Structure formats: structure tokens, C-alpha cells
Amino acid sequence: MDGRPLGARTLAHGATFRDADAKPFRYPPAPTLPKPKQTPPAGRLGVWLFGAYGGLATTVVVGARAIARKLAGTTGLATELPAAAGIPWQAIDGMVFGGHEIRRSDYAKAAAEIHGVTGSLPPELIGKLKKDLAAASRNVVTGVMPNPGRTIASLADRAQKRTPLKQQMAAIERDLRAFQRRHKLDRVVCVNLTSTEPPLRPSPAHKTLAAFERALAKDDQKAVRPSALYAYAAARLGFPFVHFTPSESALLPAIQEAFAASKTPWMGRDGKTGETLVKSALAPMFAIRNLRVLSWQGYNILGDRDGRVLADAENKQSKVATKDALLPSILGYPLHTHVGIDYVPSLHDLKTAWDFVHFEGFLGFRMSLQFTWQGCDAILAAPLVLDLVRFADLAQRRGEHGSMAHLAAFFKQPIGVAEHDLHRQWQRLVAYLERARGDRRL
Ligand SMILES: NC(=O)c1ccc[n+]([C@@H]2O[C@H](COP(=O)([O-])OP(=O)(O)OC[C@H]3O[C@@H](n4cnc5c(N)ncnc54)[C@H](O)[C@@H]3O)[C@@H](O)[C@H]2O)c1
Fold it and tell me: In CATH, which of 3.30.1370.100, 3.40.720.10, 3.30.360.10, 3.90.550.10 is domain 275-377?
């Protein structure tokens, strides 16, 4: 014993170890370096939220304005981590918010409702942001509702005329251009935060852009859902698109083709914020210890509007599909899994998930792990939305387009990415940040 504490003699960050091949291995230094100076891009960024008065969108707008006014910190934002330092991110106070909605409300009212049921978004904060929230509310206009499914249709109270799809597309594009012009915005990023739509019945119209265009021209309302029109409008205008919901209609192959045609970055789907996030962090632990997972049962209970929409079996199908895909992919073998989602109105946005993991160890001995996750859904998701807006904007400024695969860590079902292990997804993001840091175009 040399008298030093044990930690000092074992491999600390930065220590070296020589393996049998005599190749030195160095642990990367702990990321505690002071932030290099960042120069945010000139100009203002428009952030267009489809589903503008929802619980999540309201928390995004309140949170961003609170950060801009220095009334709140940036806990929860990955773009504020030391690993993301040195990148000229869009400043939060230079973001201008607007969006489409199908319900009448305003941000102060929506925030007060949220406070009444979950306790987040305190009234003192809302009072201090009154003018900012009124300004953002003036940018919210009536959205479109082609074939939304019965539960979403029942939410709407803004007057809707049944117009042909081509006219609806033109209206969305007009709204977005007017927003950009009115606020002299240099760039605009679109984020889909609308209610989860039921899956669409497969149609040839989804396969190619030409077929999709023909379906719009024929006013084939059954071939689309609202998210499809919103995403297509973003693609046509060349506005980066973040698809945060599980709805499958937004990123159909035909719409991906439209993004490719306009060289626009996009990514989806379904933000990874709660139970699935924990799963994607924990499942690799079983894999690297060679512990065999036999069953993974997960039950989610939640209230609020999102829960009400997911209580409809049709809409629930979309969510279960995105939550259930990752375990066999991380573990590398099929296993018994179950994802239950039940609507418990009194919980509102304070969601609870209980997971039971049954696994087998050495000598076939069976053990279990259980965890309970109690999260406030919108509080978990809002900083991710701000991060994703910054990443999408960065990608466009770097001249990138197509699916932003480096953002897989943010999504339950990252389109085009087979990797679900949170740690590996994070490594990929860090590698991207390292490349972006040296980018002279920024
Ligand atoms: N942690 C999270 O909060 C989280 C995580 C992953 C995904 N999501 C998804 O994000 C979405 C929003 O979640 P939320 O909790 O804010 O739900 P919410 O029900 O509070 O908000 C959805 C909003 O979309 C509006 N809307 C519905 N159809 C529309 C249309 N055609 N055009 C314009 N607006 C429309 C609704 O009126 C509502 O205001 C949901 O799909 C949810 O599944 C949320």
C-alpha cells in the first residue's frame, strides 16, 4: 500500500494502461474544460410548432422565453453540455415562435391550465412573460384536419372548412411564408408536436412523390393525415423538419423523397424522453454482462390530452410500435416483451411507468430488476425540442440534408438507424459534434 486513496492508484480519467499488444489505451479526459467562445449565427430563427398550444409546445415556448429573459437555466438541454461547447448554436433569445393549432387558446391560458394540473410553469413566471407569450400567441393560426381520426377530430374547436387537399397545402405554405416575412426571419425550423395520429392504411400514394402529388390532386383525403401535409409543406419550402410524434404519416417514403428533392434536413420519430430512454440505457448493461433477459414488461399510465388520444386503440397502435422495437435490437435475440399504455385522467402530464425485467444469470439462476419512472412528460421533452431545433438549424447551415442520423439518441424510433443503444447513439452524436466544431463554414 502506498498510502494513496484507492481511486488514485486505479485508472482515473487520463491514466494509461498498456495491453498485451503494447498499444497504450488512454481514457478520454473528463469533459470539464471551460467552454470555448461561441459566436451564434447572425439573424433570427423562426420555430414553427405544429400543435402549437399542446402541453409540450406550450412548455417549449414558456421555457425558451424564460431562458431568454434569464428567468430559468438550461438544465435538460444537451446543446449546453461541455461536449457541445464551441459550436455556434442559435441563441435561444433569437428564436421566434409560431405555429398551427386546431383548438382556441393562447399561451398564458394554456400555461395556466398546465400549472393547474401538474404544478409546472408557475404563475409568477407566466406573469413575467406576459408580453412575450402574447406575442407568440399572435403567431398561432388555424391548422388543417384532413382525415385525423375520430379522437383528434373531437378536440378541434377552431372553425374548419372542408377544402380540397391542394388548397390546404397552399394555406399551410402561405402561413409559413407570412410568418417568415412578418418577422424578417433568416431561417425557419418546423417541429411536429401534434397529437398522435392513427396509422394510415398503406396506399401506393405513399411510395413515391409523384404518386403522392397525384393523390393530392385527386383530393384523396383517405391517403393522408394532417402530419403528412405539414411535413410536405416543410419539405417544399426547404425548412428543416423535426418529427417528435409517433405518427407515421409525416415521414412516408414519398415525403422523404420530397425532402431529398429540396435538399432539406429532417429527422424523426417520437421523442425518447421517459421509459424508453431508461430502457435504451439499461438494456446494454444486460448485454455487456452476458445476462439473458427473458421478459421485459412495461406499463405506462398517463393522463392529459395526450393520454386521452392514446386511449383510442387506433392511435395507441402508433405509440406501441415505436416503444416496442428496441429491446430485441439491443439484446440481439427475441424475448417476451409487453408495452401497456393506459389512460388515468387524474395523473395529467405526470406519467408513471413501471417496468419488470426478468433475467437469467450464471448457472441459469433467475433474478429480476424493477424500476418506476415518474416523469413530467413536457418538462422532459421541451429541452429536447429546443436541442433538436438547434441541431436541425446547424445541419442546414452546414449544407447537410437528408435524415439526421446522428440525432438517433433523441428518438424512440430513429428512422433509418438500427442502433438503439443510448450510449452508442451518444458516441455518434459526440463524433458529429467534433466534426462540426472544426467546420469553417459556420
Ligand atoms: N414527453 C413528451 O411529452 C413526448 C415524448 C414523445 C412524443 N411526444 C408526442 O408529442 C405530441 C405532443 O404531446 P403533448 O403532450 O403536447 O400532447 P397534447 O395533446 O397536449 O398536444 C397536442 C396538440 O396538437 C394539437 N393538434 C392536434 N391535431 C392537430 C392538427 N392537425 N393541427 C394542429 N394542431 C393539432 C392539439 O389540439 C394539441 O394542442 C404527442 O404526439 C406525443 O405523443 C411527447
Answer: 3.30.360.10
